[in-house]
Write a structure and sequence with these properties.
This protein is an all-alpha fold. The chain has 2 helices and no strands.
Length: 123
């Protein structure tokens, strides 16, 4: 957003500066009224053409940057999704292994308790 404003400000500044410079040069040149009017008309057309060229160039570059940003953003989103999926899978497998370990420990404790009861019952 800020870079768009800077680009617009630069374009406006270039146009205004060009117009002021051309007008100043023409007004201080020692020419007749007819020659001066012709020069002003020619320079106004040249400035207008240059402005159209600059606007077109800025528009094309803006579109290129927008495509690049879009592509980069899509890549980052894809990588973030892949990473999140991997993390979720890792956590799930870790959680399942903990549950399995707990079940094994419970089974071992139950077996030991049963053996203790059998030993006590045999006495």
């Amino acid at each position: 957003m800020a870079s768009e404003k800077k680009g617009k400000d630069l374009l406006i500044g270039a146009i205004v500066g060009g117009l002021l410079g051309a007008a100043t040069a023409l007004l201080f040149a020692p020419k007749s009224g007819r020659e001066l009017r012709n020069d002003i008309a020619e320079n106004a057309k040249a400035v207008s053409d240059k402005t159209v060229q600059l606007a077109t160039s800025v528009s094309q570059k803006t579109q290129e940057v927008a495509k690049s940003v879009s592509t980069t953003t899509s890549d980052f989103v894809g990588k973030a999704k892949d990473t999140a999926t991997n993390v979720v899978g890792t956590v799930r497998s870790w959680k399942e292994s903990k549950i399995d370990d707990t079940d094994l420990q419970d089974d071992e404790e139950t077996s030991e308790a049963a053996e203790d009861l059998v030993i006590l019952g045999n006495r």
